[in-house]
Amino acid sequence: MAEMDFELPEDLKEFRRKAREFALKEITPEFAQKYDREETFPEELRKKAYASGLVDYSNPWSVLILQEEFCRVDAGTGICAVSGFFGLETIQLFGTEEQKAKYVPMVTSGKAMMGLAVTEPSAGSDVAGIKTTATKSGDHYTLNGAKMFITNGQLADFLVTLTRTSPQTQKRHHGLSLFIVETGTEGVTRNKLHEKLGVRATNTAEIVLNDVKVPAKNLIGEEGRGFYYVMTFFDISRIYTAIQAVGIAQGALDRVLDYVFAQGMENLKEETLMIIGEMEMRIEAARLLTYSAASRLFQFNPDPKLTSSAKAFGSETAVWVTEKALEITGLQGLTGDLERFFRDAKIMEIWEGTSEVEKLTIARTMFREMMKEFVGEKGGAKA
Amino acid sequence: MSSEEYQLLRSSVREFASKNIEGISAKIERDGLRPETVTAMATQGFIGARVPSEVGGTGLDELGYMIVLEELARVSPSAAARVLVTNSLYVPLVMATGKGKDTLKDVASAKANATVAHAGLLEGFREQTGVTVTNSRAQGVKDYVLNSDAKLVILSVNGAPGTLLLVKGGVEPVNDQTRLGFRGLRFSSVKVDSGDFDVLGENGPGMLEEALNGMDLEVAAIALGITAGALSKATDYSKSRTTFEHPLKDYGPVAFSLSSLKSEEEMLRNFIYSEGLSGTAKVMARVRSTQLARSATKQALQVHGGYGYFGDFGVEKFYRDAMALPLLFSRGGKDMQRLSQAVFESKAGFM
After folding, report:
1. How does pLDDT run along chain B (351 residues), one tens digit per residue?
2. Model pTM score
3. A121 to chain B nearest CA, in Å?
4. Which residue is catalytic, options A206, A339, A349, A352?
5. Higher model confidence: residue A275 or residue A265?
6. What residues does B171 pair with on adjacent strands?
7. Residue contact B178–A329, C-beta within 8 A
8. For residues A217-243, average pLDDT
9. CA distance B301 to B242
């Protein structure tokens, strides 16, 4: 029988070393603190990351490891450096050849940035509750509505935007469509949102769409299928969130170990040792869960149960580890990197699906699978 | 005070806080507590809450003082911390020794600001610098001072044990520190170069430790204020916010978690305001209330979803302050050892 191998291949291990080296060199504590305090986007860092050749979208594992290592040093600026592609998979999977040729290279090369505009002021977890409309007339659609908490919103060259193209019926998930909206189009207004608790270097905006004319050729996939495309995308992006959370948790543990080491091992108390042991235990579990979900996804066989488990467990791990890290390091943590890690960690439980939504997804997927099996068995018996 | 008087005090502090502080609580986080807000708090008698009335203070008893802290913390934990530093650190240290009492009046009326450099006793403190006295001049730098733009600073000088001084001038804040919570107060090192000081006692660290241990119920009151403020926002939000065509409150996980946290809050409130609590009960109250504040603020933020992550909604400050409260005013493992000592009736929890 073949053996199961949990090890990363050698070239990825080497890639991890390079990614960490880059992050440690470019994202110093002072750098991270400055962008956190000023709530500004580190465009120079993003450019350097692309120029270094580390950002390689043709190899999803490398994107995963890159996010882990960057967030381990600093989540705010680290996410900025590598998330200019946010939403790209919707075009890669469902877009036309023309859309792929036009939009994919400009993003993967780092020349352009994009974002995904799904959430609205009154619809977050409840994606199908969105109110933005797209009305067709001739060769274009006219979009009206408002989008909220859009990552890269103010900086993106285009936004993949979810709209309602036919009135809501009993089947709320029907009648939604995705469009590529170039942000220079007349009627697009973008307002930066300020005073986030954490990941403050990242750009978050409110987008107002007022009679925005979008060419019909910018429709992604089929009209009315937008909800399903977005859900498919979340099964991908949640894996990136999970690994960002793992990176944050690992970075917090790194700092706790440094602190304890500097304090002198002879003063180490049992209660501290046990917490450190538990941090390591939870982080490794979160990492393995994430790699396992990623492995399924990257082989085009995603398992929503695994993906949502990785995302919820990873983010809860990040929150737990950063809290405990502050307890152990006290005043040092309160005034150093760790207070930022604690603030950054909390978003992981919220964006890309709250922990609550993830847990519901896990359970519902299980029951769907049971139903399929049940129907399958009945079918079998009949035959 | 009678229970009616406590009730009256609570409603008047609540009214003041909602009129004068709630609306600017986000601004306080951004720009700090403004002098006019502090003056308004002083006029109400909050800044001099524990300063005896014969020297110009309010002379509130402990329960009355806790009510002030709790009600301020409900809208702005920073405002409560400003009152706490004055009344639970500065006032008892001055009152214990009888020296420096001439400063009490100005502090109570907010003409002078007073603080105490107590960080040396906290977990994670690394002394890089310090203050020494030579030829009747106190000179040096004290790190991690909360409310550091104070004119009056109580600090322990270098040495074992170091003398406790009340420095009355020649103090300036230097090197502002970023930190997680209580952003309404300045937090930095202070540079001291002064010949104007009173010696409050010979064992500075011991006296500071006593003051920190003596504020169990006050820390608990702030923790409960933070809890109440956060839960009330989350409860309101979950009544008005709809998801999947139902208000959030109609979902079991939302309603049950908030209700369960609320019940803990109310039980702890009944507990901490009981008359004549033992020392053990007070440590218990501190430990449980600070833990509750952390879980309640975390859940309150979560219920708000993305909105909770932004300053506008006023929840994230509670989350930060709930975590910062024990780090700045409690002594982590030392508090647990005090609690265990009481439970085991002997040394416990350390070798």
Report:
1. 899 999 999 999 999 999 999 999 999 999 999 999 999 999 999 999 999 999 999 999 999 999 999 999 999 999 999 999 999 999 999 999 889 999 999 999 999 999 999 999 998 888 788 999 999 999 999 999 999 999 999 999 998 789 999 999 999 999 999 899 999 999 999 999 999 999 999 999 999 999 999 999 999 999 999 999 999 999 999 999 999 999 999 999 999 999 999 999 999 999 999 999 999 999 999 999 999 999 999 999 999 999 999 999 999 999 999 999 999 999 888 889 999 998 999 999 988
2. 0.96
3. 9
4. A352
5. A275
6. B192
7. no
8. 97
9. 16
Quote the number of domains for chain B. Answer: 3
Distances (CA, A) of A220 to A175, A224, B270: 13, 10, 59
Nearest partner of B186 among B38, B22, B7, B335, judged by Cα: B38
**CATH code of the domain containing A244:** 1.20.140.10
- Compute how many other C-beta atoms are within 10 angstroms of the C-beta atom of residue A101: 10
Domain shared by A195 and A216, yes or no: yes
Q: How far apart are the C-alpha atoms of B348 and B330, rounded to whole Å?
A: 18
Any domain includes A88: no
Contact A153, A183 (CB under 8 A): no
B142 and B227: one domain?
A: no
Do A22 and A66 touch, CB atoms closer than 8 A?
A: no
First-to-final CA distance of chain A: 34
Asked if B170 and B221 sit in the same domain, the reply is: no
Closest CA to A305 of A239, A376, A227, A260: A239
Residues from chain B contacting residue A327 (CB–CB below 8 Å): 327, 332
Query: Domain total for chain A?
Result: 3
Give the position of tokens 């440590």: B283
**A246 with A358, same domain?**
yes
CB of B131 closer than 8 Å to CB of B157: yes
Give the model confidence (pLDDT) of A176-193 as tens digits: 999 999 999 999 999 999
The reply to whether B329 and B246 lie within a common domain is yes
Under the banding of pLDDT at 50, 70 and 90, the label for residue A257 is very high
Check which CATH number belongs to the domain holding B330 and give it.
1.20.140.10
- Same-domain status, B83 and B122: no
- In this predicted complex, what is the ipTM? 0.97
Query: Domain end: B108, B124, B142, which one?
Result: B108
Do residues A128 and A29 both lie within one domain? no
The pLDDT of residue A377 is 67
Q: Is the dihedral of CA B335, A320, A331, B310 positive or negative?
A: negative
A352 is catalytic: yes
Q: How far is A128 from chain B (nearest CA, A)?
A: 8
Asked if the C-beta of A168 comes within 8 angstroms of chain B's C-beta atoms, the answer is no
Expressed as residue numbers, the domain containing A74 is 10-82
> Cβ A124–B306 below 8 Å, yes or no?
yes
